[in-house]
């Protein structure tokens, strides 16, 4: 019997053939799936009896490799068969469906963002702790990050060669180092793959978009009596994404009906004392500060909109609203009415999913020096290109001033200005007549090279294993944001005047001499090519980042002593790592500085902020750089405690790691765990507690300085200060304490083929790195926080020298609590008169608490569990049922997210509401529905070498529930829900 100790529900390698399926057990298993509703996509699958199996099992929850060793840290495993049945063009999607993975980013997440630089980035997050608190490894080795936040891009991995993925759902810093607070996701490749295999797949949604194609091929062969082994894989994948629909309501992109402009209307606190809710959950929200082609937003002409040809018309406010001439609208709650003219709504102008193109070339060459020692080299060259539109038109929300002598105004408006004795008015527009939408286009290129050796040797009568490697990783990210306006030029261009010769020009002579061309934003009119070129230069915002990672690692493991209950197993090792980055931005965003690239390509323009930058509508990137290094050593010991017929057998697992960060100082991590295989058939208990850390990343440490002027209240006086946003090299590591207790039932004799587990976990993270507001920093300094006082000068005799540096500090804390449940069953269906085997797998995560304490006086801890606007629902579940024969298989999958709320701090009421507070607003509806999605897949073996497959995700084409927010975004939450609709896929797999 071989136990896969990586899985919560470890299984024997092979069940007796054609064992009948007990009816009662089948009923119980099906009920379990209904209650648990999720799938253990773990390693319960048996290895075929004919396949040789290594006698040593490597446990990824630990550094120890030992025969029969049971790991106390729960680990779920996906095999290559599980991955193939999921039939996703990107393995990231398959893994992120696991319930413990919450808050991961992907092609449909962050599409609303312009400046984050994370669009199209596929990165895992465990427990909703964030991708930067989840360590992702490739064959147990670190991979150069694809972003300065320190996260890797799964799209850059060689996916066809992955034979299993181990997900360690517990703190693992003592074994693997920083970032493993949430756990570890480890991709294991087939290092000795022999033969040829390929995969061709294509698909699209039922709305005929997000068309995708995937080509993958791998070849491996041994030479020189297999001393030399070469593996090569190449992959190309392309997903078209889902483009924005544009302005107005109507159906969403290509006929989708989910978008209904959801939003929160929020009254001022002073008005929320009348027994009515302060907040209202509304649909068909109408922003009344702009319209599609322009709207006068205050003064006697408020409510005048402009349409085709610049013709004015009376705007139809929702909620039967009437403008008050002061910027407000009766019957509406700023900034929204409900209903009315919704043609200017820009919320569905966001891409539902980024277009994504990924290419990967990977090779591994190994040479066996003898039967005990091997040297190898791996090279991975990958490119991921994505594109999305964060919004359309670049709306201006009532923050423009139009002079009444603007020659683009209709004569009737000029006359109305004169009649009302005004010379200007406030104006808002969606800029819907811009010819192109904003386009965010990150291109990430990875070059990763590893040389290493592994093997075994004898010393002092003991056999030892070793592995060591050197890695050089480079990730270059070229981020373009196209079709952006330069805000100072836009302001200058819309302020037009008619010259004595009858021509129209920019009012400012300074701007005019610098090339300003007048821009007509009054109604739906053609735009001047010259004006567009002036306000929207073709190069756009740009940021070029080079990130490097160098690693040297050496590890040993063995069993030096034979003790009373088995061998003493140890693992130890050393590691050195250096992380560095350098980013260069365009001078429009960064400002023209000596280190600006191609600064001479940007001629002097007095309209722009030349030295401080920040000229773009969005995407104002800055130059920066930084590096740090890490030195660490660890020791892990597995001590057998007892092994008797009466008590069973138990072990104690202890690990410790010392780490020295060049910036963050020293850190110590440890782990203590135990497993007890009881004398009760198939029953095993386990427990583990650990101290884990996450070191501050490059962005937190070395974010470039951005300076603006602002005001604060200091000792009763309003004080003008420089606001300096910057990194903080004094940050310390976040420190977590994690504990898990579990019970595992593995194929008892009374239930052959059945396994189940239950694991309860708690995680507390102190010193969480977080950002404060300007006034919060000043107030905390006044309250005695000397660390914050060191980040400001407020008593300078030269007033212009006063500043407050907005940095991240180790102030906040997190508390998480919940449990995981996993079940599986595999057996024959011969009793039902059918060939083949039946499998049932279920996995669920229940989040009891996800509490964030900002550490700021006057605030309270917030509960994120069950907040379906976020990423940690109360329940997230996955279930699969499958039937398979030698030639065909059918698999049904259920993905379920439980009902939730918008916020646990909201008080729901309709009448007789208590007085709302900043901490506890009142709201008329605080419910957000969950969702159940059904997926259906099938395979058919055409021949010994060709397998055909089909897959339908979201079989019922179920819409995601609307997700309102303070702003009208697309109104959906892709972190929890399927936002694309029914997806069809089909493909062929070849093997030789």
Automatic annotation (TrEMBL):
Native source species: Pseudoduganella umbonata
Protein name: Outer membrane receptor protein involved in Fe transport
Superkingdom of origin organism: Bacteria
Cited InterPro entries: Beta-barrel_TonB (IPR000531), Beta-barrel_TonB_sf (IPR036942), Plug_dom (IPR012910), Plug_dom_sf (IPR037066), TonB-dep_rcpt-like (IPR039426)
Predominant location: membrane
Keywords assigned by UniProt, alphabetized: Cell outer membrane, Membrane, Receptor, TonB box, Transmembrane, Transmembrane beta strand, Transport
Subcellular location, record wording: Cell outer membrane
Family (UniProt): Belongs to the TonB-dependent receptor family.
TonB-dependent receptor-like beta-barrel domain boundaries: 425-955
A Pfam family the protein falls into: TonB_dep_Rec_b-barrel
Boundaries of every TonB-dependent receptor plug domain copy: 70-184
Gene3D superfamilies according to UniProt: TonB-dependent receptor, beta-barrel domain, TonB-dependent receptor, plug domain
Any one of the GO CC terms: cell outer membrane
Recorded topology in the membrane: Multi-pass membrane protein
């Amino acid at each position: 019997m071989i136990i896969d100790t990586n899985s919560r529900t470890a299984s024997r390698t092979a069940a007796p053939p054609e064992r009948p399926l007990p009816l009662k057990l089948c009923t119980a298993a099906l009920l379990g799936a209904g209650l648990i509703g999720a799938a253990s996509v773990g390693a319960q699958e048996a290895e075929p009896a004919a396949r040789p199996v290594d006698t040593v099992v490597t446990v990824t929850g630990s550094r120890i490799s030992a025969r029969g060793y049971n790991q106390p840290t729960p680990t779920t495993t996906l095999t290559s068969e599980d991955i193939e049945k999921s039939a996703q063009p990107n393995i990231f999607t398959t893994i992120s469906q696991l319930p413990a993975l919450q808050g991961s980013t992907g092609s449909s997440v962050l599409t609303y963002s312009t400046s984050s630089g994370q669009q199209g980035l596929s990165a895992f997050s465990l427990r909703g702790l964030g991708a930067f608190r989840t360590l992702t490894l490739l064959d147990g080795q670190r991979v150069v990050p694809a972003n300065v936040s320190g996260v890797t891009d799964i799209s850059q991995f060689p996916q066809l060669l992955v034979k299993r993925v181990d997900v360690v759902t517990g703190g693992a810093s003592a074994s693997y180092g920083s970032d493993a607070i949430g756990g570890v996701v480890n991709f294991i490749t087939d290092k000795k793959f022999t033969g040829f295999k390929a995969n061709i797949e294509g698909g699209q949604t039922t709305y005929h978009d997000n068309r995708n194609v995937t080509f993958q091929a791998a070849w491996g062969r041994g030479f020189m009596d297999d001393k030399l082994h070469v593996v090569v894989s190449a992959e190309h994948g392309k997903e078209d994404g889902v483009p924005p629909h544009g302005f107005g309501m109507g159906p969403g992109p290509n006929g989708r009906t989910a978008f209904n402009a959801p939003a929160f209307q929020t009254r001022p606190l002073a008005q929320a004392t009348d027994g009515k809710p302060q907040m209202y959950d509304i649909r068909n929200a109408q922003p009344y500060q702009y319209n599609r082609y322009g709207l006068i937003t205050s003064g006697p002409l408020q409510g005048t909109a402009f349409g085709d040809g610049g013709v004015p018309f009376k705007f139809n406010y929702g909620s039967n609203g009437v403008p008050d001439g002061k910027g407000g609208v009766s019957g509406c709650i700023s900034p929204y009415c409900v209903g009315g003219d919704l043609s200017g709504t820009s919320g569905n102008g966001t891409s539902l999913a980024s277009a994504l193109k990924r290419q990967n070339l990977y090779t591994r060459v190994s040479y066996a020096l003898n039967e005990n020692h091997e040297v190898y080299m791996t090279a991975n060259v990958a490119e991921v290109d994505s594109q999305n539109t964060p919004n359309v038109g670049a709306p201006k929300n009532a923050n423009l001033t139009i002079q009444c002598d603007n020659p683009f105004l209709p004569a009737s408006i000029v006359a109305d200005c004169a009649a009302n004795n005004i010379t200007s008015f406030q104006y808002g527009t969606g800029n819907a007549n811009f010819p192109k939408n904003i386009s965010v286009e990150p291109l990430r290129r990875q070059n990763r090279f590893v040389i290493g050796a592994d093997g075994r040797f004898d010393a002092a009568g003991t056999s030892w294993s070793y592995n060591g490697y050197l890695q050089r990783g480079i990730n270059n990210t070229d981020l373009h944001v196209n079709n952006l306006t330069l805000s100072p030029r836009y302001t200058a261009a819309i302020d037009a005047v008619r010259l004595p010769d009858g021509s129209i020009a920019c009012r400012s002579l300074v701007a005019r001499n610098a090339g300003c061309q007048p821009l007509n934003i009054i109604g739906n009119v053609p735009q001047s090519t010259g004006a567009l070129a002036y306000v929207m230069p073709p190069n756009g915002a740009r940021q070029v980042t080079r990130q490097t990672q160098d690693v040297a690692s050496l590890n040993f493991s063995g069993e030096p002593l034979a003790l009373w209950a088995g061998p003493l197993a140890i693992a130890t090792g050393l590691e050195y790592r250096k992380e560095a980055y350098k980013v260069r931005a365009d001078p429009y965003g960064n400002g023209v500085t000596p280190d600006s690239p191609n600064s001479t390509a940007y001629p002097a323009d007095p309209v722009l902020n030349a030295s401080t930058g920040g000229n773009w509508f969005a995407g104002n990137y800055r130059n920066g750089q930084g590096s740090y290094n890490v030195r660490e050593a660890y020791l892990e010991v597995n001590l057998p405690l007892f092994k008797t017929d009466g008590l069973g057998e138990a072990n104690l697992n202890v690990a410790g790691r010392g780490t020295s960060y060049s910036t963050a100082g020293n850190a110590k991590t440890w782990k203590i765990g135990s497993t007890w295989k009881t004398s009760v058939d198939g029953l095993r208990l386990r427990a583990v507690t650990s101290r884990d850390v996450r070191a501050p990343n490059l962005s937190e440490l070395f974010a470039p300085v951005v300076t603006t002027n602002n005001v604060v209240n200091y000792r009763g006086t309003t004080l003008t200060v420089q606001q300096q946003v910057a990194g903080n090299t004094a940050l310390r590591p976040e420190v977590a304490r994690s504990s898990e207790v579990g019970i595992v039932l593995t194929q008892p004799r009374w239930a052959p083929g059945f396994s189940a587990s239950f694991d309860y976990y708690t995680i507390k993270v102190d010193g969480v790195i977080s950002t404060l507001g300007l006034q919060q920093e000043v107030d905390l300094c006044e309250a005695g926080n000397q660390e914050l006082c060191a980040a400001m000068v407020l008593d300078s005799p030269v007033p212009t020298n006063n500043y407050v540096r907005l940095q991240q500090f180790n102030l906040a804390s997190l508390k998480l609590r919940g449990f995981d449940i996993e079940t599986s069953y595999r057996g024959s269906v011969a009793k039902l008169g059918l060939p083949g085997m039946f499998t049932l797998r279920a996995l669920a995560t229940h989040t009891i608490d996800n509490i964030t304490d900002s550490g700021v006086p006057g605030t309270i801890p917030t509960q994120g569990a069950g907040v379906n606007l976020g990423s940690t629902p109360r329940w997230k579940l996955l279930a699969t049922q499958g039937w398979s024969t030698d030639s065909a298989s059918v698999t049904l999958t259920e993905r379920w997210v439980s009902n939730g709320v918008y916020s646990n701090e909201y008080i729901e009421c309709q009448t007789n509401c208590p007085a709302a507070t900043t901490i506890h607003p009142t709201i008329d509806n605080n419910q957000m529905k969950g969702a159940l999605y059904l997926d259906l897949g099938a395979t058919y073996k055409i021949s010994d070498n060709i397998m055909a497959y089909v897959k339908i995700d979201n079989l019922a084409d179920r819409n995601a529930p609307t997700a309102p927010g303070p702003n009208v975004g697309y109104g959906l939450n892709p972190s929890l829900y399927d936002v694309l609709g029914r997806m069809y896929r089909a493909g062929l797999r070849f093997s030789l």
